[in-house]
Amino acid sequence: MEKYRVDVRKFKNTDKFRPAVLHYEKNGFYCAATKGTSSYKDYWDEEIERCKYGFTAEDGDFITGYHYYYLNFCQINRIVIDKKTKKPIPKFWFPRFFDYDHEFFMIVEECEKQGKHLAVLKARRKGYSYKIAAMLARNFYLYPNSKNYAYASENEFLVKDGILSKVWQYMDFIDENTAWYKKRQKIDTKMHKRASMVIDKEGVKVEVGYKSEVIGVTLKNDVQKIRGKGGKLIIFEEAGKFPDLKEAWTVARPSVEQGGDVHGLMIAFGTGGTEDANFDGLKDLFYEPDGYNCLVIENIWDDGASEPCGFFVPAYYNLDNSTMDDQGNSLVKKAATQVIAEREKIVASATDRTAVDRYIAENCLSPQEATLQISSNIFPKNDLIKHLAYIRNNKKIQEFKQVGDLVIDEKGGIVWQQSERPKDLTRYRLQKDTDPTGEIVIWEHPIDDPPYGLYIAGCDPYDHDQSSSGSLGSIYIYKRFQQFDSTHDILVAEYTGRPKTAELFYDKTRRMLSYYSAKLLFENQNPGILTYFRQKHCDYLLADQPDIIDKIVKKSTVQRAKGMHMNKEIKIDGEGRIKDWLISERGDGRMGLHTILSEPLLEELVAYNPEGNFDRVMALMMVIFYKEELYNVKLKENKLENREVTFFGVSPFVGDTNEFNDSFFPEPAGGIKLGNVI
């Protein structure tokens, strides 16, 4: 799979891309030739060629037709410097050339060449409604019979100050100032305009004209409205607030694709900061572009990313006049510093964590920040994102991850069997065609003859062999504190997956508990795991219902011998306990979250919301509840040396400080990494 690589270059003398508008700015009109003359026709024919096929300047620099049209024939709301006062003032005028706009329009051209579509994730206030509106208007004037659609979930995203309002403004300007004016007699509404007129031909009403169209469609949760609507350009406006975006995308694709031929371009674009689950559709299109026939782009923005993505527009490009030179080239370091400084002010003064998350998502420096889940998630998402990026970019840590299975040897003992081709689930959200079975992951093997209570476990099980919700079973093994040991308060093993039968999951859970001599606290809504352990005569491995429930739920009437039930009160309490553990200080400037080596768990913690399905988080919640239930249990002493040995040697958790191994976990870097862009 070949990836497109974003390459933002610096430009000189960028007025060379604006010959038509420079003449307009100086004289108040585009063409000095008299209307109807050959010179007049030649001028506008040349401008059509440039707007369709692009423009190459004398020095060889090229811009696409969409970009040329936007720069020379569209007026937008922008901030300009007043020549007299030298102060910034708002003005409705032509756009400047921006380096990142050039890259966007080049990517659009690449999509059309390859027969691909495009997913765009961006920071707020980057002017993309104007750019996309210009694309719709350009097709209306230059391609007869073309249909161009703007889809949105709500009417307000298209009209009022929406994308269609901008298209109609462009049309008024073009009709008044160019040779391309189009009559719109047949259809001329706030949602639909068609270039045609009706004439009387021998008493018969006949529609004639260019017959190009721009059409707005509000879906309002009915994606079938777009079925069969083929177009040259289809825009999904505010895709981050688009319920059922993926279904709508799938319904729309056959209208622009036939066999292996793609005859229309679809673009979904949106901004982070959405306070609901509607953002997941755009997130999936962005991070899984190949699955939706979108252009596959190398992810140069997320630290440590190896998987491709869509097109990302960070906050530090096209920011403002003070962070760009006079030719429209972004001063990236200066802009990034400005964004970070403003963010620190917001964080320092904010009392609402949701407001902070929304600000970060809207003024994002990476796709991971743009995709922050804005909800009642109380976990430290930004710290989790940084730690996740660090793990993914640290080969030494990755080498300590062991993937395999626990098998029964000829003596009846449980032994570790390393997998030659690991099949563990490395992303919290199941990808298309991914085998959900998964494998056991171990970061630190158990010590010999562990004392009672050193290892504990938490599990979110399931009962049914098939799941339509994508729910998985998940178990974590946790190592508690003992004075004579080097590592403590860490997750040492995980199994998350959905084998063909629920009993296979229970069996893996049983083997992990036996291997670590651990007891399990599990969510007991479904009785399957308890039944299985009793049938195997090993229900002693299951923890009793904890007394901590009585402190959370006053006068609780739920009494079950094993495990722990879940209700709203308990879940809210558990979320708070997870947060406290994540941000807990470990004595060397690091927090509890820095001990987590499970990438999908970190992803789940970042994306978590109370209404969603987060199996790993619920398993971790069981661990935290059980850990605090056993807080006063004193571990038996042991004569082990103050050093751990694992399958690969020294544990990644061991260091001279009895906390982390500093060679694997250096001091957390300050500031925000900007990947390869600086």
What would you say about this model in short?
The protein has 19 helices and 25 strands.
Q: Can you tell me about this structure?
A:
- There is one protein chain.
- The protein is α/β, with parallel strands linked by helices and 678 residues long.
- It folds into three domains: 14-316, 3-Layer(aba) Sandwich (Rossmann fold), CATH 3.40.50.300; 334-383, no CATH class; 387-650, 2-Layer Sandwich (Nucleotidyltransferase, domain 5), CATH 3.30.420.
- It is built from 19 helices and 25 strands.
- The strands form seven sheets. Strands 7-8-11-6-12-15-5-16 form an eight-stranded mixed sheet, sandwiched between helices. Strands 18-17-19-22-21-20-23 form a seven-stranded mixed sheet.
- The longest helix has 18 residues, at 332-349.
- The radius of gyration is 30 Å and the shape is elongated.
Task: Produce the secondary structure layout.
Blueprint: H1 19-27, H2 38-53, E1 55-56, E2 62-63, H3 65-73, E3 76-81, E4 88-93, H4 99-114, E5 118-122, H5 128-142, E6 147-152, H6 163-177, E7 187-188, E8 192-194, E9 197-201, E10 204-208, E11 213-218, E12 233-236, H7 245-252, E13 257-258, E14 261-262, E15 265-271, H8 280-287, E16 311-313, H9 332-349, H10 353-362, H11 367-370, H12 381-392, H13 395-399, E17 402-408, E18 414-418, E19 440-442, E20 455-460, E21 473-479, E22 490-497, H14 502-516, E23 519-522, H15 528-535, H16 548-552, H17 568-583, H18 599-607, H19 615-629, E24 645-646, E25 649-650
Parallel strand pairs: 5-15, 5-16, 6-11, 6-12, 12-15, 20-23
Antiparallel strand pairs: 1-2, 3-4, 7-8, 8-11, 9-10, 13-14, 17-18, 17-19, 19-22, 20-21, 21-22, 24-25
Helix pairs in contact: 2-3, 3-5, 5-6, 12-18, 14-15, 17-19
